[in-house]
Amino acid sequence: MSNRIIKYICIFSISILVMPCSLSANDGVVLVSGDASITVKAVEGGLYKLNFSYQGTPIPTINPDATIFLELAGSKVLSGNYSSCVLNSNMLTCQALLTTSLGTNFNVSDIYIAKGNGIIELQRKIRLSNSKAGDRFFNSFFGFRTDEQATDLTRNEYFIPAVWYKGNFTVTGNIPEYIPQINDTYFYYREDRITLPLVMFRNPRTNFTLSIIHKDSKCETVIADGNGIYTDAGYQFGSLGIKRENKVIYTNFIYPGSEAERRGGRGPRYHPIQDDLVHEYNLELCFSSVNNYATAVKDSWGHAFELYNPTVYPVDLDVTYNGVIETLMHYYGEDTSMGGKYDAAGWPFEVDLTTFEPRNYDYQMGFVGMQVATGYYIYREGVETGNNDMIKKGEAVLNFWASKSQTSLGLPRDWYDPGWWGNTGTFRDGSNLRVNTGGMESLIAAWAFAKRSGIEKPEWLDACKRYGDWLIDNQNRDGSYYFSYNHRAINAQGKHPVTNSNKFLTICAVRYLVELHIAAQADSPGDNKYREAAEKAGDFCYRNIHNTYTYVSCVIDNPRTYDSESGQMALNGFLALYDLTKDAKWLTAAEQAATYTESWVHCMEIPVENDKGNRPTKFPRDRSIVGQHIIAIGHAGADLGFAWSSFAFYRLYLETGNEHYLKVARISAHNSKQSMNWDQSLFPGQQRGLQMEVFNVSGRRRENGAFTCLNWNYAAHLDPMFRFKDAFGTPNMEEVEKMSWENRKYYNDIYSHVQSANWGQDIEKPQ
Asked: Is the separation of the CB atoms in 109 and 95 below 8 Å?
């Protein structure tokens, strides 16, 4: 197609100078990308603008009469159209000059590139000349009026990673009141607050879906940002989101990244009016028709992930494995039978990363305590290496929880404060389903490992079955369980009273019941009671979590709202049911949970401030944020918790052949160790397994956080490594990758029959 050049006059929505331009009378030039198109349109006075459409339906820009939209001094609109447009094959190059009433010139260069399949890339550069101080500062916008009849915000669906999902404004979504609410106007989020710079809008009545992705963002800033200064040329990051005003839904990108007027936001950010300013960005505009929310999220997230192609930062997985085991042995608290001062052995709740001394030897069986899990790890390591000291210390922990933690009804009491120097400790109030199942899962694994190693520990399995029987006796008719129970009381019905009736922790019981079913076949072959309970619980979760896209409540020390760990629990539970039943619906549910889970993981580089100098940081300044995950809606706290998921994502890769899951598994296995002392460069001379628990990515970047190492940190790395050992004989995923595809599939199939409850039973080998 020959070049078509259209020249026309720029228009402005505030008092501006009209710049004379020569005019070409060629109207109707069209750039096409699949079902999306841009048409150059003549408007009143012989001027031109761009009209966007998808499948023939117009998609108006922010100002339908003017394609370019800027804001001066935070409120005054400066909008206009292009002075020239050149169409060359799949590229439409547009130029404009917008001038304020004071004389500041905004030279706008926009290049639209048709990439096929409804995708259009916008490459924008704005240069200022003749800058006038009276114009003060500005933002540029690009976006669309995606619904012009929005009487209700929730008549449409939205996705912004780690902050906005389908059920945000439902009762079960339960979002905190200090973040945007259903009747608010502004829902803009800086891209250093989210995990990829992406906003998605979907109309469920028509299936029209629009995603805007900030492509190639460097996400750079300066110290002034953390100090709350509104204006600086060093703000080189964007924000994305939704604005609802006068029944219109706007899906927008803003540069630099302002959160002005958003509830809980960090306020406005602007660029100054100055001639040497760098103001440029690339956007990927993705127009599509998607018939359900889950697929729309998967497609939009997947496309942004491919654009950023996050780097895997390799660590030596064997060194990290050994380093964490050594760290556990170093901080082990001996009981009085070993010459220690406690009436029960275990690990400190946390280790101070300035003094490297333990804080508070109090024991939680699961969740952030993970005492049973770490007892299992050193017990198994001792058996495998012939280290009797490890065996003794691991057994002591496992024996305590198996023999001392349960009530007469079988419910575990999950948090113990040990007694000192001959005194007896006490259990704290409350028993929480996630804490209980997270601890007792490891007791199943310990029993199964011992049995297949020729060691009989019937008391460990008995404890697991007592809890399994309690779960059967307390399962609700709909298959659910409650959030927590009072282990100190028994009511007239002979049960521990419910203390919190939230049902979304039910997913935490699924994998426990599946693996208990497998283990229980050792002495009760053909007894399916635990399997039946697992499937009932799974059906509840399929209806109430999977079908509604409601992954909430599993970060139990946060509000009962959307969080990253609810996705991890769903992935574990649904994958366990798929292994048990081979029903494809469970694999579909596991994949959906996987997409949700990875959407909480930072997959874009977010460096420290360019002028940070020698200011101290908590998270290492020279290591990548990629692979750290945001914990929950309502705050920007991030941690290493994505480490838990490397094995599950690797198995999804083997089950589906989708190499995306392999990449994500590697990010989980390697990048989650960016703040670990695995190579002793962070804390020279200290234990290799030490790693800070939680930190803030944004604000004063990497400066704030809990500079302590909790016991769950070790378990997050070792749990998937021990499962890799169960399935493939090595904790090192990269060693597994050296096996042939056929061998990996073979061992994966065997694992699916026994999971991590392999007690040496006969297995029908896959052909």
From this structure: yes
List of residues 6+ apart from 258 with CB closer than 8 A:
139, 188, 190, 239, 267, 268, 269, 270
Of the chain, the percentage scoring pLDDT greater than 70 comes to 96
Question: Using CA atoms, how far apart are residues 160 and 210, in angstroms rounded to an integer?
Answer: 12
Q: Supply the DSSP symbol for 725.
A: H
Question: Is-contact 310 667, C-beta < 8 A?
Answer: yes
Check: CB of residue 343 under 8 Å from CB of residue 393: no
What 43-46 contacts at long range (C-beta under 8 Å, 24+ apart), as own/partner pairs, is 43/11, 43/81, 45/9, 45/11, 46/8, 46/9
CA separation for the pair 124, 122 (Å, rounded): 6
What is the full DSSP assignment across 289-303? E-SSHHHHHHHHHHH
- pLDDT at res. 17: 32
- Strand 91-99 and strand 84-88: the pairing is antiparallel
Contact 440, 511 (CB under 8 A): no
Q: Please, what sign has the CA dihedral across residues 694, 599, 664, 608?
A: negative
Buried (b) or exposed (e) across 26-60, using 16+ Cβ within 10 A?
Answer: beebebebbebbbbbebbeeebbbbbbbbeeeebb
**158 closest CA partner among 193, 120, 210, 118:** 210
pLDDT digits (tens, 9 = 90+) for 239-292: 999 999 999 999 999 999 999 899 999 999 999 999 999 999 999 999 999 999
Instruction: At 105, list the tokens.
Output: 């010139």
Range list of β-strands (E), 130-247: 137-147, 157-159, 186-190, 198-202, 208-215, 239-245
Q: State which H helix or E strand residue 348 sits in.
A: none
Name the token pair of 601. Answer: 């993981």
Instruction: Quick: pLDDT tens for 188-243.
Output: 999 999 999 999 999 999 999 999 999 999 999 999 999 999 999 999 999 999 99
Helix/strand/coil for 421: coil
* Rg of the chain in Å (alpha carbons): 29
Which amino acid type is present at position 484? Answer: S
Q: Which residues have C-beta within 8 Å of that of residue 139, sequence separation ≥ 6?
A: 70, 71, 254, 255, 256, 258, 270, 271
Amino acid 7: pLDDT: 32
Closest among 170, 189, 192 to 179, alpha carbons compared = 189
Question: Token match 């960016």: residue?
Answer: 674
Greatest alpha-carbon pair distance for the chain in Å reads 96
Q: For the purposes of burial, counting CB atoms within 10 Å of the CB of 360, is it exposed (0-12), middle (13-18) or buried (19 or more)?
A: exposed
- Parallel/antiparallel/unpaired status of strands 239-245 and 350-352: unpaired
The string over 218-244, giving b where at least 16 C-beta atoms fall within 10 Å of a residue's C-beta and e elsewhere, is: ebbbbbbbbeeebbbbbbbbbbbbbbb
| pLDDT of the residue at 26 | 53
